[in-house]
From TrEMBL:
InterPro entries registered for this protein in UniProt: DUF1885 (IPR015062), Rbstp2229-like_sf (IPR036294)
Any single Pfam family the record assigns to this protein: DUF1885
Composition bias, Basic and acidic residues: 86-95
UniProt protein name: DUF1885 family protein
Amino acid sequence: MSRSAYIKFVEGSTTKQVTLDEVKQQFKRYTEMTSKTGQQLDWDYVHSAFPYTMEEKPEANGQWFYLKGTDEKLYRYILIGVGSRQVEKQTKQPDPENEGQTNVISTTEEENYIQITLSTESTHGDKGKANEFCKYLAKEYKAELHLFNGRVMYYNPRK
């Protein structure tokens, strides 16, 4: 059974939605940063920090791609996709006719997200790297991160 983590774009995020190419650019930036860290340490850190190749299948239709591990024993697959869905939001507003009372108003909004999925073939190494990538992306986009274990991390500025 596969498990997924979600990076949701909420109020306060740097953007409302991203494309798959923008996510790929973030991974390229990540590898550049780790490469520079490795140069400072005089160590080939980039292969340890990002032990994957980015690959896309024709049936993905620009909706997802996957990271294929370079060392099959430690790392196998992480799937990454972008999407949106309709969610119902409820807000409370004061009732002008009845003082002290509130009305609940339901509205439907579009919620955009990045989904990171571990397949049944994924290893513990994949899960660790996926968590690391999720935190990096959520921090870059100031988004809300829903981890594989159901916990939520807020990188967006909240009131």
